[in-house]
Specification:
The protein has helices spanning 9-18, 33-44, 46-59, 76-83, 85-95, 107-110, 116-134, 152-165, 182-187, 189-192, 210-219, 241-245, 248-262, 265-268, 282-298, 300-306, 314-324, 331-336, 363-370, 419-428, 434-452, 463-471, 480-488; strands spanning 23-28, 99-103, 141-146, 170-173, 177-180, 196-199, 223-225, 274-276, 374-378, 401-404. The protein is an alpha/beta fold. The chain has two domains: 9-297 and 368-488, Metal-dependent hydrolases (TIM Barrel); 300-340, no CATH class. The strands form two sheets. The chain has an eight-stranded parallel beta sheet. The protein has a two-stranded antiparallel sheet with strand order 5-6. Helix 8 (152-165) links the parallel strand 3 (141-146) and strand 4 (170-173). The radius of gyration is 25 Å and the shape is globular.
Amino acid sequence: MTLVKATPRKVKEIRARIGHPVIDGDAHVIEGPFAFHDFIKQVAGPDVVKRFEARQARRGKGHRFGFWASPSGPMTIDRATVMLPKLYYERLPEVGLDFAVIYTSEGLTAMQEQDAELRQALHRALNMMYADMFGPYADRLTPSALIPMHSPEEAIAELEFAVGELGMKSITISSEWRGPIPEVAEAAPGVAGHTRKVYSFTIDSPYDYDPFWQRCVDLKVAVTGHGGAQATQRRESHTNFVYNRLGSFSVGAEHLARSLFLGGVTRRFPTLNFGMLEGGVGWACALYNDLCEFWEKRNVAYLKKYMNPADIDMELMIAAFEEYGNAYLTSDRVRENPDNLFSWTWEDDRDIDDFRLCGIEKEEDVRDLFVPNFYFGCEADDRMNAVAFNRKLNHFDVQLKAIYSSDIGHWDVPNIRYVVPEAWALVEDGLITEEDFRSFVFRNAAEMHTQMNPDFFKGTAVESAVAKLVADGEIAIPDHGRAAAAEQGGLSPVRTGA
């Protein structure tokens, strides 16, 4: 029985017209539980497998996670495809894809596992399984390694193993790590396991993750964040998955990008690329433009000139209250307590420069620290993808770097043969140009990985096409060592956004 069908006519028409490859920046694998358990046993033994099975049994009884979440019925073939790399590989031409980066399914929950031994075993087992499963198909499929981020040491250990020993070329982290609230853990140890706090990797973090970011640069891997906000306070329904899922990945991605930017990571590691996956790009346009506009009104010079409570003209205030006050808004009351009169004027010894870690001196610095380093995974059917390419919308006439991300394997792709036509619909509807489409499905993904590792696509089906992008100057290859030296010397090695 042949399971590979002819390429649909629409896909053939699109491919004949565009004349360039299509890279899927975020397809998924559905892990066979029996195989996964075999690898957990290999890594940590049968007792850890039993603990994992018990955890899985409890998982479906509380928070409403995704259910009926992969194709079946007439599209059972698609479920088989994302479980079997050989079938996946053979069907790529049918789908209209030349190359795909494959991301986890099981790992989305493993990344927030609180049991450290189990968490580390799950990550190690998944990475070993992915490397083994997809190894024979490396010219068209490459899996992304899963990195636990509950501490820099834990993250670096798995990074070294996955990249250094398994030879994996892409990594995935969560958008945050979740752990006990220290005050609760100390005051009430019995309930600490049920009370979690969301921690960023920068702002107010108990850890310094700079050694991890540096190892990513050293090992030539872009960092892709693939974590949502489900099972956090505003998405905690026990009965409604759609309620929990709506906006989840965009909230997680926004949190990661916001923390990396304001935490100064793109300043300290100017050549390190980050991809925020599955949340689209609408939130990213809002964040980028907000950062520009917040800096205009929250930079230190502006605050000191217009917002310093010490500079309030009390004579003017008293005169205003005398002329325009009423029975309880009186000038006498202003005179009686001038130091404690106005809300939102609290002062303490904390630094008032919220942009201090970024080293921002002018608004253009926001552009230069945001646009070059960040890439955004966008699913084919999301019409908001178009805002990434709207130069009139975004400050300094920039385009944000949207990456075509099919999400093949999950519930929102009921038929994998339609994902390329769905993305092309933005061109047909006049929302993006054909050149925008080329950036979306090819150039941006190629750039994100090639800038980190010029050999990322070596030996793949898209090697020559990516090499031409480099030769033509469409992809600039940064000197990572030179950037680090420039930063240490106080120079600004930041790449300017196009």
